[in-house]
Amino acid sequence: MKVSGIANANIALTKYWGKKNPELKTPYNSSTSVTLEGLQTTTTVEFDEKYTEDIFILDGDEYKTGEGEYDNVHEQLDLIRAKAGIEQKAKVVSKNDFPTAAGFASSASGLAALTFVAAKAAGLDSSVEELSKISRMGSGSASRSLIDGFAIWHKGEQEDGEDSFAEQIAPVEHWPEFRILGCVISKEAKKVKSRAGMKQSVATSPIFEQWYTNAEKDAQKMVELVKAKDFEELGNLAQNNCILMHACAMTTRPPVIYWTDGTMQVIHRVLELQDEGMKAYFTIDGGPQVKVICLEEDVPKLKDELTKLNMVHEIIECKPGHGPRVIEEHLF
């Protein structure tokens, strides 16, 4: 009943922003992503009669009932206990090798790792599709981290959410030279978490309907571009999709603005490099960090240019990665 594993974060190539059914965590639009080696969560889960309540420790800090992180983990464990027909409480210890809750999709890798490991520890023999649905309930983007390589998370049409899950567009081996450079602008947790920001946008942004209608078209187009390995079109689509998502967030009342001076510094430099002929494109999730989409051959030049920026503290190079896997070394 004790299992450890690793799950990678994913970066959305076309975003989702807004839940159509908050209870089932189903989105207004489909989204696409690439799972990344280089941004991972390690988690150990143990179900045992000796625990009188669930215990959750993340990056050395223990969370308690009433705190969002704890409640999210507890609810996810309840889902798995119900499916496995067990009642034992669990101890969960996790650690991220990148900034937590700062716009690097730590909720995606975290909930994917928790779902995958807890299901194994509970004795479930679930398919990847089923695990994607379960992880969606903890964090929408986590559904995509269950997938190797490039993925699409289908918005689904059914009221029960059973057709809202992620599946593979292309495996890791399809595009080995594909790269994401994660520019760390700040390691602080963001003030407005994505879940809260989305809720505000659904309720108040005057361009919300335009956003998700366009985003659905973008997701379907991105599937074609990934399969065709059309890098220039992919980069431009991802960049424009990102801008529209943040426009939706910024037109929310009160506005949800994740970009900082450091964010803008990277954006401007990437645009300048594009003008100079380089195929590099930016994308940004719910946080200040900028991810630069590029090909392996341009990584040295881009790293050199981006490290010159005084507000970039670190650059994390990532390539297409795999879904979760079990490891032998436990965290406790």
Automatic annotation (TrEMBL):
It is an enzyme of class 4 (lyase). Its EC number is 4.1.1.33. Pfam families: MDD_C, MVD-like_N. One of its GO terms (cellular component) is cytosol. Residues 7-166 form the Diphosphomevalonate decarboxylase-like N-terminal domain. InterPro entries: GHMP_kinase_C_sf, Mev_decarb, Mev_diP_decarb, MVD-like_N, Mvd1_C, Ribosomal_Su5_D2-typ_SF, Ribsml_uS5_D2-typ_fold_subgr. One of its GO terms (molecular function) is ATP binding. This is Diphosphomevalonate decarboxylase. It comes from Candidatus Iainarchaeum sp.
